[in-house]
Amino acid sequence: MTGPTISDIALAADASMAARVGAKAANLGRLMAAGHRVPPFVVLGTAACARILEPIRGSIAAALDSLDHTDPASLRAVSGEIRTIILAQPIPADISTALSADVREIIDRTTQSAARLAVRSAVGGEDSATDSFAGQLDSLLNVAPADVAAAVLAVLASAYSERSLFYRAHRGLDNTDIDCAVLVQALIDSAVSGVVFSCNPQTGDPGVAVVSAALGLGEGVVAGTVECDTYFIDAAARTIVSRSVAEKRSRVVVADEGSGTVVEQIAAVTDQALTDAQIVELVHTATGLADVFGAPQDIEWAYGADGVLYLLQARPITATGARETVFDNVNVAESYPGLSSPLTFSILRNAYEQVFRTCHRDFGATGTIVERNATSLYPYLVGTAHGRIYYNISNWYRLFLQIPGMEFAIEGWEAALDIENRYQRPAVPKRGLARAKVYLLRLRIAAIITAGWVRLPGRLRAFFTELQAYTADLDYRLDPETPERERDPEALLQWMERCLHELVPAYAVQIFNDFLAQQMFHVVGLLLEREGLTETAAITLRNELFCGEEGVDSVDPVRSALTLTATVRADAALRELFEGPLEPHELWKALAQPEFADFRGACLRHIALFGDRTVDELKLETDPLGEHPEHLVPMLRNYLRGGQNIDEMAAREKQIRRAAERTAAQLFRGKLGRRSAFRFALGRAREHVKQRENMRLGRSRSFGLVKRVFREYGRQLHTAGLLEDPRDIFWLTYEEIAALTRGTAVDTDAARTVATRKSDHERWRTEQLPSRIVTAGIAAVGLDDPAFDHPRPPADSGSVLHGIGCAPGRVEAPALVLTTPEPDVVVDGQILVASSTDPGWVFLMVAAGGLVSEKGSPLSHTAIIGRELGIPTVVGVAGVTRLVASGDVLILDGRAGTATIVQEHSS
């Protein structure tokens, strides 16, 4: 009882020893006491672990004194220093002797041959109801008996890992006073394993239990490294209400040599990992333990090859009382990469509110539903963290699910935006009125969509008519000859309010068109697969069928710029000027000479028509081309150097399209009905994708109007003495500007607010935030201190990076890694590498050999323009901006969706 170790049998018999062993081991003792089967274990108690660490307490405390938990580099350095100190510390002889004896006793009680061990942490607070520490502390699997002492030191060191230090600081826990115990347990070589929740962990609903299962060891489920089945079960009736069965191609197994585990690739298994009887057994166990322990339980389990159930761990489910909110920058990062100003975010938030209120009604939401969501849903479709814009994904799901019968579209929406699948659609009832109701609701939605499709062309024309009217009105107001009262702050504010309530809701037609584009694009792929193509082959053929589409307005700015380039190339004087050494602003000034008047006039016409199309064009702080016409010069120089010809590019794409159409015709030969359905789906998909791009150009022009309004507003606030610089208006929100104008501002010191936000943005600029942030309860707590993305190590030469091939073609060229490209960046056939791109990148893409990005989908702007311009394009390559450096030579295959590093840059 008083020795350094505590056996599982002793712990099960005497719950008072729980304080000496940590929550994880104590919970296992409770499971044994309740009669459940637990693999044999022994615990090296907190007193023994304290003795091991006592000689180095001072060194650990000294290292922690320099910790800044908000700085990834500090976390890494401090954690590494402490780990080195602990791993070098010897275990006292009496503790080592007692532990060895107990390990031999565990092995003697194990029925498996060649017994191996799991060595796990048992830290104070771990696996409690408030702090789960899930995944923050190390568990070492497949440990040989002779290696237990070294594994114990490694587990003690993991209490000070980067993840653990960050987690404890983030949760307000003490990093200096950690009570450690270590659990040594027989490792079950499981056939199938996973986790069961006695209630829904997302909602806290005790009526729904959830089971996740995978083949092999449970590490694959917890770490998310293998394919998992998920089951939702009515906890009272013990009936499975929804199941998602994955095609399982991998499992975690013990390594053949040494310690640890490996992910083993296997022949695809499409059957359930568990029988229905096993699922019910797990739910019965979990709900029973929840009753015994008085709280919902999260239980890790394993079934041996003999079908016997073992419980490996139990802990209270954390945070079920707090609403979980998921923020994700997928898709939105294409339009708003990096940091955005407070004014941009506030206008975007208002715009989303108005557009999706209208859109909800378009898709069949009743007046009651719209009214109910007016204050709690529509205003909160986007969020912001450290200056970055995110979708509030949780509210987007609510948007779908509040329209009866619309849940069928969620999976297609997730696929189109490349969002991690979170929604499990309940199975259709098998009989009775409930089944009939489901189909009636779907018929209602089909009727609404059909009616909307019929009205679509008229609504598209109406938006552009409205846009023209607003453009003419603003031109009049900002004309110097117009009376000043037409553009004073109140007049500008009223114009903006009308814009948000009239022009912006009209843009909802784009969302309806997007929906049709996503669904028809998906249908085209499914129809190709039905003809025997593999999923990969169907995706490739589908992409090629969308090449060479005519009438895409988004390409018009490029055509115009290439026309200007052709003029330069044909005129000796202009060519000499552009190939000379003048800086862009000097060259633009030189174009004022009389002999260049016609060309300068053509440039000004280009700027008037397409000046709103720039990199980061939807950020209000980004200047339109009209304010810096000299930025046109580097663009034309890139084209002049590269020799691009839009007609040749279009001809190549049409050739790819015709070849793809011949392949499709061969697939559907002799199948009249299927061929007709395919042609209809392809035609509609092409039209909706084209209109999607055309509407995006209209969106650019709409934002161009808003930019003009707030630049004038900024000048007036500067003149009034409220701002030190007219551009400081971008550091205020729309609501703050309205409050300053109308006398409702609680803080009128705008200059102080601006200074604070400038300082914040400067600090945030170097941070690397994750693509997804999950918060519980008050969102600001999670958004203000999200876990940072750690830079990935550079990829080795020969590494093949995989993504989604969107525009066919193969090119070998140096990489040019761009975050936010400057207007004068030199692009001459390199492969552009970016985190994401917005429509303004089209001018850079034309001069590039290819493009690869971290974000995007086959329907993203990047993919569509890549197909239109014949530029090999691959999207969805995770971490490519950190794995590839400028100058690395890549082979980009837009058909296969790969980027291969063939030569690293010498630097």
Plain-language structure description:
This protein is of the alpha+beta class and 907 residues long. It has 32 helices and 25 strands. The chain has an eight-stranded mixed beta sheet. It has a six-stranded antiparallel beta sheet with strand order 9-8-7-6-12-13. Strands 1-2-5-3-4 form a five-stranded antiparallel beta sheet. A hairpin with a 4-residue loop joins strand 24 (889-893) and strand 25 (898-903). The longest helix is centred in the last third of the chain and has 48 residues, at 672-719. The protein is globular, with a radius of gyration of 31 Å. The two termini are 62 Å apart. Residues 125-135 and 788-793 have low confidence and may be disordered.
Q: Briefly, what is this?
A:
With 907 residues, this protein is an alpha+beta fold. Helices cover 47% and strands 15% of the residues. It has 32 helices and 25 strands.
Keywords:
907 residues, alpha+beta, eight-stranded mixed beta sheet, six-stranded antiparallel beta sheet, 47% helix, globular
Q: What class, by secondary structure content?
A: alpha+beta
Strand order of the largest sheet: 18-25-24-20-21-22-23-19
Helix content range: 40-55%
Uncertain runs = 125-135, 788-793
Percentage beta strand: 15-25%
Count of helix runs: 32
How many runs of DSSP E, i.e. beta strands?
25
CA-based shape: globular
Largest sheet: 8 strands, mixed
- The mean pLDDT is 85
Q: What Rg, in angstroms, do the CA atoms define?
A: 31 Å
Distance between the termini: 62 Å
